[in-house]
Design brief:
This protein is mainly beta and 350 residues long. It contains three helices and 31 strands. The protein folds into two domains: 125 residues, Pectate Lyase C-like (3 Solenoid); 172 residues, no CATH class. The strands form three sheets. The protein has an eleven-stranded parallel sheet, covered by helices on one side. It has an eleven-stranded mixed sheet with strand order 3-6-9-12-15-18-21-24-27-30-31. A nine-stranded parallel sheet has the order 5-8-11-14-17-20-23-26-29, with no helix packed on it.
Length: 350
């Protein structure tokens, strides 16, 4: 009987411990390891001197089938065209620096409308100034944009709308007029190991997005009147980890977001946006918007916790909002803390 009692007691202790662990409410987002499919179909060649090679990228895409690869040589670069990618293909350039697509006369240079596309190793530049203008527009799922230079857009760099499972990695964004990346109504977006340099508006704008992962990026915007590094609106479950924020005048703005986790980032400057490094304006009950800051570097070595100041505003429309933004008025201060700030910057390789 004593043996049975001891067994039941140990079992009860284990169950209580497991229950306490499960009640941990730390907001976190796992980095989804889902990979886009790899293909082993035919390869169609564009440019170069090979017999039967295409002269236009769009012609090769039109003749391709799902699973094929369109390989673009840099010998015939630049390619003055736009492309509609309506097949599940790999579209690969010979060299990121020398294989150029110039969309000077088009609203959208690369329009991806098929699932499972890989776009890699190009410099894509110049799109026309229009309301829908972008270097790349993604309107399909399971798309990877990897190892490209995306630059000199008169509008946005990349636009994503109502899509799922998108990987944007190892790219350079430079001198795009508005947002470098513009995200709407999407899920499972991974932005990793990119470099963002210069934008009149925001580097990344995201609205109504779930499971956004921003890891290993460098943000540097030298413009005095630049927008924000991150403008996140109506967003849930976001991981922001091991990024370098070097912009002298920019910052991060969270508007009605839930469960954002900032960890191991290098904030190299005391941002001047509204006078604080990270600013909040909540239009709803701030108690439900759980965020966590942990182990970040905040411009200087620290031993005491870092206070992150935000504010709760009753409305963010019209004149009331403009007064808050323009004059920096605080309406009911909100405080978050990084209880374990890093004493020196992290060595983050991009």
């Amino acid at each position: 009987m004593n043996g049975q009692s001891n067994f039941l007691g140990k079992t009860l202790v284990i169950c209580i411990l497991l229950l306490l662990i499960s009640l941990n409410t730390t907001p976190s987002v796992a980095i989804d390891s889902t990979k886009n499919p790899t293909y082993s179909g035919n390869t169609l060649y564009v440019g170069g001197s090979g017999e039967g090679n295409y002269t236009k990228i769009q012609d090769a895409i039109d003749d391709a089938s799902d699973g094929d690869t369109v390989f673009v040589y840099d010998e015939s670069s630049p390619y003055y065209e736009n492309a509609i990618v309506n097949k599940s293909i790999n579209l690969i350039g010979e060299n990121r620096i020398t294989t150029k697509i110039n969309g000077y006369s088009f609203d959208i240079v690369i329009d991806i409308i098929a699932d499972g596309v890989l776009f890699s190793c190009f410099t894509v530049l110049n799109c026309r100034d229009s309301d829908e203008g972008a270097i790349i527009k993604i309107r399909a799922n399971s798309v990877t944009i990897n190892d490209n230079a995306i630059r000199n857009s008169n509008e946005d760099g990349i636009i994503l709308s109502a899509v799922n499972n998108i990987n944007i990695s190892n790219n350079i964004f430079m001198d795009n007029h508005y947002q470098n990346i513009d995200i709407y109504n999407s899920n499972k977006i991974r932005i990793m190991n990119n470099t963002f340099h210069g934008s009149i508006n925001n580097c990344i704008y995201s609205e109504n997005t779930n499971e956004l992962v921003i890891v290993g990026n460098v943000f540097f915007n030298p413009l005095e009147l630049a927008g924000l590094d991150l403008y996140l609106c109506e967003l849930s479950n976001c991981l922001i980890k091991r990024n370098i924020f070097e912009s002298p005048n920019a910052g991060i703005f969270l508007l009605n977001c839930k469960n954002c986790y900032f960890t191991e980032n290098n904030f190299m400057n005391e941002f001047q946006y509204l006078g604080f490094g990270i600013v909040y304006i909540y239009p709803n009950n701030p108690i439900t918007n759980k965020h966590k800051f942990d182990n970040n570097y905040w411009a200087n070595p620290r031993t005491l916790p870092k206070i992150i100041i935000g504010n709760f505003a009753f409305s963010y429309f019209g004149w009331f909002y403009r007064i808050i933004i323009t004059w920096g008025l605080l309406i009911i201060p909100i405080f978050h803390f990084d209880w374990h700030p890093a004493k020196e910057p992290y060595d983050i390789e991009i």
